[in-house]
Structures are given as C-alpha cells and as structure tokens.
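# nightly structure sweep
# worker-07 picked up a monomer target from the shared queue
# config: single-sequence mode, recycle default, output format = structure tokens
# input follows
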Amino acid sequence: MAEGKRPTNLLSFYRGFAIVQKRFFLNRLPLEKTESWIIGFLFLFLAIKPDPATALSPPETEQPREMYTFKAAHLPPTNLSSSLNLGAAANPNGDRLGATNFYFTWNNKPWLPFVAEFQYARTPSYEWEFSLKKIKAAGVNVVSTYCSWIHHEEIEGEWNWKERRNLRKFIELCGENNLFVYLRIGPSSHQEGRNGGLPNWVLRKFHPQMPNPAFLELVRQWYAQISLQAHGLLFSQGGPIIGIEVDNKFFNNSKDFSKLKQLAIQEGLDVPYYSVVARNRTQTPQGLLPLWRFHLSPSQDAYEAESPVSSDRAVIYPLALNLMDAKRPGPPFLRGLPLAAMGTGNAGQTTYKKRLAIEKAEIDALAVTLLGRGANMLGSSPFHGGSHPPGRTSPMHEAGYPKISYDSQAPLSEFGQPRPWYHSLRNFAAFSTNFGSYLAPAFPFPVADRAIQDAAHLQCAVRASSQGAFLFFHRHLPSGVETAPENSRIQFDIAFPTRRVQFSTPQIGNGAAGIWPLNLDLQGILLAWATVQPLYLIENGDSLYCFLKEIPGIAPAIALFAQTVAWANSPSGISIHKIKNSRFLLTHPQPGMDVALTAINKSGRQVRFVVLSTAQAEQSWQAQVWDRERILISNADFLTWSKTEVRAFRAGAPRVTLSVFPSEGINLPYEKRPEGIFRNCSLQRPPLPVSHSILTLTPNRWSVHAQIPDKCADILLRIAYVGNAASLSIRGNTVADNFYNGKVWEVSLRRFLSEPLELHIAPLKHGASIQFSQRPQIAGPEKQILKYVEALPVYEFCFR
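# output follows
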C-alpha cells in the first residue's frame, strides 16, 4: 500500500475474531482469562502481518529527516513540598488549595489554573457580568484583577468604591460565575496607567523605590481599604479570593516584598497564595510565588523605537528547559516553586512609537512554549481589554499610550468582542482543564541535542510523568530563516522509564503549533502517540469520549499500544505495526463530528476518540448546561450559558447553528438527521436593518450616526482607515481612541447609546519615527484615509 493511502478496514475481521475467541476459546477451554487473550493475540498475529508500505517511518534512503530525541527515562519528583508559605488554604466546605514543588493542588490533587486578567475599573460596571460569562465560557477558572490606588484615592482622603470602581461587587460577580479571584493590590500596579497606579499626591510626597515608614503607613491604609471591600469574600471565608499579588513595578528589594506581604496579612488579607512579579534583578523572597511575564513585544518602552516590531517575536522564546537567562537562578521549580506564567504576553498594547499587530499564530506558539517549558499556571495579561476611566484631576493613562483605550489586542477587546485567539486560547484552556491531572505533574525535557535548538529547527519539548506525556511544538520562523525542505520528514524518539516511543511525520510547516499526547493512559488503553491535540474528556454511558483537534497542515494519526487493547474499530481502517519490541494499532482518521476510533480494554471499558477539524474545534465549547456536561459546536461569535439555556451572539448574520453532544434530555428543535454523534439545530432571526450615516465635516473629521434597532444586542462599528491615530468624541469629549496598526478598529455602540459621534483621523507623516509590523506606504508628506465605516447588528439567540 502506498504511503498516504488509508489502511484496510479490519472491522469484519475484528468482529469475526471476537466471535471465534468467545465461542472456541473462552467458552470451551478451561483457561484463565489472561491465557485466553494470549491465544487470541497469537491468532491475531498469525492472521495479519504488518504491511511494510504503511510503516510509520519510511526507509532512510527515501527522504531526509530531522531527528528529535528526548531522554525522559528518569523522572524527577514533582510532588515534593513547596517552599511557599501558604496562608489560609481551606474553605468552610473543607476544600483545600495547596502546592508542591512543581504544581498547584486542589484537595491534594494536581490542579492547573487558567487565569484571565480583567481589570474591573476599566470596564463599565453594567458590562461586568456579561464579560465574566464570556471569560468563564473560554474555560477560565481564575480571574486576576488590578486594584489601582489612583482609581480609588485620586484625591488624598477621598475614597471612591462606586460604579466601575466597586471592587466588592466585582468580586461577588466572579464568585457567582464560579470564578476564583487573584487580587493584584500594588501599591503600584503599572498596567500602562498613570504613575504606575500611584496617586499624584503620593508621588509628590515620596519616592516609592525608596520606601520609608511614612510611605508604608500609607500603603497599610490602602490595604485596609481593600480589606474592607473583600471582607467575607476570602477563600477561607467561603469566598472566591485565592491569591494576593503585591507590587508590580517600583519595589526592588526582596525585604520590601516581605514587608508588603506582612502588611496585607496584618490588615486581614489572609489567602492561600501570595506572589510578586518576577524580575531579573530580584530574588523572590521565601514564601512568595514569582509570577513570570512573557511578552510578544521585544520592548514595552512607549517611546523607544529602535528594536523593530516584526513577526519574529515568538521565536525569542525557544522551547528549552532553561527558562531564564544566565543572570537568573534557574527554573523556579528547581527551587521548590511551581512555574506560574500568569502575566503572559497573549496581548500587546500599542504605543505611540510601536504599533504592534498581533497574529493568531504568535499566540498559539507562545501558549505552546510556556506550557512546554513547565508552566503550571497560564494566563493572559489582559484577557479582556479595557478603557481608562475618567480622572478628576488628570488623565489616567501613561504617557505614550492611548488616552482612553487599553484594548491591548486582548482575546476579548475593550468592548468585549472576541478575536481569533480567543477561540484558540479556549482550546488551550480546555486542554489544561481536562488533561491537567496528566500535565501538572509532568516534568519538561528539552531536545537531547542542544545543537538543533535554533530558529531554523522545530521548537519542541516533552513533558512526562508516570501517567503520560505530551509533545509540545511550534515552528514560528523569523524572517530570512529557511525551514527544512517540504519533502523531508521529522523523526521523534522519546525514551520513557518503561518503554520507548518512535514515530515520524511529514515536515511540519511554518506557523504550525500544537500539543500531541504520548504514552497516555486512558482507562487502561495506552495511547502511544497521536498527531492531534487533546481537547476534552467527557463520560457518556459506558464510554469515555476523548475529543482531539486537527492541527492545520498535519494529517491526523492515532496509535495505540496493541497489548492494551482487546478490540478496536475505525471507519478509516486500522493497520498493525511493529517497531522494535512494540506493536501498535494505527489509524489515520478523517476529522469530523463522529467517532474516529473505538477501543475496548481488557476489562470491557470503551474509549471513543473524536477528531474535530480545526474550525470545529475552535467553534467548540465545554458547558455545564441542561443538567450535565456537554460539548457544543456553534458558528456564533461567542456563547454564554446558565443551567437551563444557551445564548449565542453573532455580528452581521441573522442565523446561528448549534450542535450538541450528548443530545439526550433536551427539548431543542433538532434536525431529523444527526451529524455523527452530535444533533444539530438552528435559529433564524429577521434581518435587522441598521441605518447609519457618515457626514464629512473637514478632510479629517466626520460625523457618524447609527441607530440601534429594537431586539438588537449591540451595533458593532467597524472603521477601516490609514493614519496615525483615530478618535471618537461626543460633544467634544473623547470617548474612544485608537493608534493605527493596520487593523480594522471595532467599536461597540452599546456604551454610547444613539448619540452622534465625531470621528477624527490624525494624519501619518512621511518618515515618522514609528515602528509598524507592516508600514503603510505614504506617497506624499502625510496620509490619512477613511476606507469605510460599516455598522453590523449583533444578533442574540436563545436555546432553551
């Protein structure tokens, strides 16, 4: 059989073999069960011989190879005591949070938190609950948020905890949506805010990098105010607050961090985890967890424009075990601390000098990199963009950044609109949640040959434990670096403590990123390897359903260790291979919404594998709805749900589809014919006409007016332009702004009701000292163009 063709379907043989085995061996011979299966597999061995043309690795003379070898035969302990000094770690229900030297724990079991940063004061309070539901729907289980001192005591002695500054209400809403809370209380919070979050009057009195008792007394008063807002909401009190981060910018001495922690505890902020932003120049003091930040941009300096902004960013984070540079003390888990990457650069704020334009491939590569390096807490900073609140005495933005916008190209924009990486990050969150018990204790191993850990080679690493392993890879090439020829193959060789896994794949192209399972124990069935990314594990009836995701450009394949399988079937056929001393059942499934492979172990337990296409996976959601856990697939922009209903939202399209598994127990308008294991339904709305007008006032100013029709969830205003910056104002007051980076600017009109807006575009001057990912061409001395403005109705649908 030529390579690339599907193996012969063995369904009829397996059925016949099972009947023969039962009738003539199990029922008629006085053999033990183990002995009968030995005879059965001997029958299988004699009946079918491997087809050499379908071998996993073609002869060496056929194609050149890249070889990646991993030595994971010696697994270091990852369940030792942590050097963290935990605070109050048990709640009234008896649930307990903890940590080992390598991972976090929930009730003494491995737990991998997926964190989303959402800054409450930068979003109107009436949008909080809706935004939190979108965050929860992404698979997030922890929300981190900054408490910026300047937002609450802009004028000395005048405290403001109302409306968008109502911290207590925000925490309560997080708890109601089953989200833990990690408070980042400063005193400095930075986050591109004025003075790093410190009030003007504080800086007039003190230099915060040289703390003295008088300054620390002001910090104590600030912490006391936060404690009042958080009273009764700490984890030990049955609330959602599980962590406190102290300071984010100004302090440099480890003794200062310890003082801040003691001040927080003194004022009643007693929580399981205490942390500080990790720094090159500072050793994290005992008892504090370093939170590592990994940014896509080489430099975050708002005024520095020397280092270019390019598509090379993700390459500066190779998948190697040495996470730090020579000046750092080594991976944190070697010092008894889990690796927490809570402030990762999954978002990037544009500055006046640097117009970062993020692409989905970069986000995927960075997520793979951090998980592959050993991160056991992963988060996006921010996950939900925001808008600076108005100040009474001064603007709230940092110089060099937009006056209003803190969009930061987050997975959810400052108006809550999802970006493409919202969907791929949701897949990574699903992996972390469903396979976290496998991943959290898995230790990272780099490629054995360090000579190939350069940008021209595949970036890859393995994380392995006694329960299973995962291969993390990406090929995000810098410009000018040539990849291996397309007709070459990649060979992987991974040595585990009790077995060895070897397989090859066609060349992995530029832009690919993913996670592959290895040596994974699923209900006693050993998954040897697969070229598809794990997503969900869900029980239904007597079967465990394992959902996997196709990686673009890579043919799906699943291989099981034959000795752990009693019976198997695949619509795509199954072939048998022998490599060294191991035998594999191999299938090349077609992606779709049906079962691609069914395997039964020797105890009769079934595992059913479903391989979703990339598009289906990134339109999939794991929801606790209609009395059980279900997998939903929808063409909606995003979904939210409660116990009894699912709401779908879609911009510009009056029809939405929803596919449900398991589909039983719900009275939905299903179509007659199922699609694989899913049942489909759809809802149609009458088209909503949106009337909008654009009136030119001057060559760079326009009046924009759009009327929001009834039964419309929102109007999405999409502004395509070329220029230096753009802003929207109402009666002379700027309400939204944008630094041009080549992307279409999207604005929600829900916040601005139906008031007329004035659009202003500042021209981009020829030769301006600004770095772009793709610099626009300017023919004359300056350029500003309004390409188009469109207003899309956002339709809301309810399935109940």
